[in-house]
Amino acid sequence: MCKLSSISNSFSMTSLVTNCKYLHISSQVNAKLYSEKHEWVELVENSSDEVRVGITKYAADALGDVVFAQLPEVGEVLESGDECGALESVKAASELYSPVSGTVSGSNERVEDKPALINTSAEESAWLFQLQLSKEGELDSLMDKEKYQKYLQSVTDDLD
Q1: At the topology level of CATH, where does 30-159 sit?
Q2: pTM score, two decimals?
């Protein structure tokens, strides 16, 4: 099982250490991991087992202008791949899936009140929900930013 922990050093960098991966991230930007369904996961600051989940800019752009967000309820227990909400735009509707397993510990009320925030800040302030991880090893199945970019390229190449 992979355990996450934060370590600070003199270069004002934070390192996330797992027994499976070693990621360096700046204190200003949390390292995100990505799913093939275009969701991202990042560790909540000062936590070793709570993550925020959102959708990627690619997914937000594909949806168009988001007008409604249904997010999972606090306390809901999710398994990786579970449908847990929905986003609706002027041109499409899309289900939300949890990229990892855990118990919902919070949702972004700003997104529920103003869903269009997803279009302007999909990978920043428009996170969707927080999870208390129950299977930390699932993080290993997600892609880092470089691998996600290569995955996106392969998906878009298939469209040509």
Answers
A1: OB fold (Dihydrolipoamide Acetyltransferase, E2P) (2.40.50)
A2: 0.78
